[in-house]
Structure formats: C-alpha cells, structure tokens
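Problem statement: downstream parser choked on a complex file, so we are re-checking the raw output for the D-glutamic acid run. The parser issue turned out to be on our end (a line-ending mismatch), but while we're here, posting the original submission so the record is complete.
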Amino acid sequence: MDSGVGGLSVLAEIQRLLPNESLLYVADSGHVPYGEKSPDYIRQRLRHIAEFFQQQGAKAMVLACNTATVAAVADLRERYPQWPLVGMEPAVKPAAAATRSGVVGVLATTGTLQSAKFAALLDRFASDVRVITQPCPGLVERIEAGDLASAHLRQLLAGYVQPLLAAGCDTVILGCTHYPFLRPLLAEMVPADVAIIDTGAAVARQLQRLLAERGLLAQGPARESAFWTSADPENLRIILPLLWKKSDSVQSFAV
Ligand code: DGL
C-alpha cells in the first residue's frame, strides 16, 4: 500500500526480486497526501487498509510509504503480531556510510521529517554526519497527477534541491516512495558525483527474508497484480502505464 502511486516504485523492486509472488496494491489516493495529515488520521487509514488485505488473504503486508510507516507500523504490529509487516524508512544508515563530504540531504514529507521515529533514526545512525532535511510539499500531488516533467514540477523540485547542494550534500536520500519517479529529473539537477539513494530494493529484500523465515515464499506462477484505489479508478488506469504497466485490474477501494 501507499497513500497513492508512490509505492509502485517499491512494488517494482518486489516484483523484480520475487517474481513468483502475487501482488495486491492499494493506492489510498482518495486521501493523498499523507505527508500533511495527522498521525492519528493515517493510523485510521492504515487499520482500514490492513483489514482489507487480511480479508483478501494477503500473507504479508508492505507499507510502501515512509509517512504511513512512521505513523502506523507500530500500531499495526500490535494488532497483528503474527503477520509479516514491512515498513519503510529513509536510507539514513547507508547514506551516512557513503557520504564523503559528511553532509547528507533528505527529501521527504513533513510527516516523516517531524516524526519521533525519524529523529531516532538520526540519533542512531547519523551522529557523525550533518543531515539537512527538506520537506517537499506539492511534489506528491504532481506525481499523483501523472506529471513527471512539467516546468512547474521542475521549478518546485529545483527549489527543494538547491538548499541541499548549497549546504554541500554529496548524498541525497529519497525519503518518500513517490520521489524515485523523479530520478531522471533530479539527475539533471545535481552534479554527477552526488549519490541519490532510496530504500525500495532493501524493502524487497526484507520482505524476502521474512517470507523465507516463515516458509511462505511462493513457488509461482504469480497471478496478475491487482490494484485498488480510494480515488476514481479511471485516474489510476491512466497513470499506471506511466509508472508501472498497463493493467486491466483496477478496482474501487471503499473509502
Ligand atoms: N509516498 C509516501 C511516502 O513514502 C507519502 C506521500 C504522501 O502521501 O504525502 O512518504
């Protein structure tokens, strides 16, 4: 799940690593962006979505959303102690290990950057580096609208990236699952030696570990991936081919 289409960047990594698994995806686009909503609101949404996945018989759930993870993963773990749940967090640890300039930038939502979970992540892994955080309101809405390259988006993104470069960041963390879709645009804006990192592949590996530990890995073949959205299914049908591939399986998710 994700608040919208951002989690498709994680879904792609999961499908690459685990091609035998049948994938169900909920885009909560009727409630996007999560980044500016209260943790309580997000927890309610996640309870609703988790229940839906349970009803669908999902053997594991991935919160392919940093903002949902900081707000709700602890609550879900308490409710479903036996269910493999994978959350996301910005790649602070690998970035702190990789930076040469000692300055790391984080692009993420306001909700993620303001959370206690993110503060704890910095305490744990980033005590030796300078971390510049940059909330990016507006980016998620552009991507949800299928805009990956307009002049307006370019300007918005440049405004968020410039302060990081000015501060000397040589490593930029994409701390929101929507942002990997902006990699091509970002790559045009930062010098070639600035590393841009996200955690989609690491999350896929964590899912693989959890499933393997429990003997739950599928032997295949996978069913066609199925998609639900809490916004108008027609919107998702239009955007899916841009971010994923064409799919006939888009249904309405009861709001
Ligand atoms: N894709 C989400 C994340 O990883 C959040 C986007 C939003 O709804 O604000 O944080």
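For whoever reads this later: The two ends are 14 Å apart (CA to CA).
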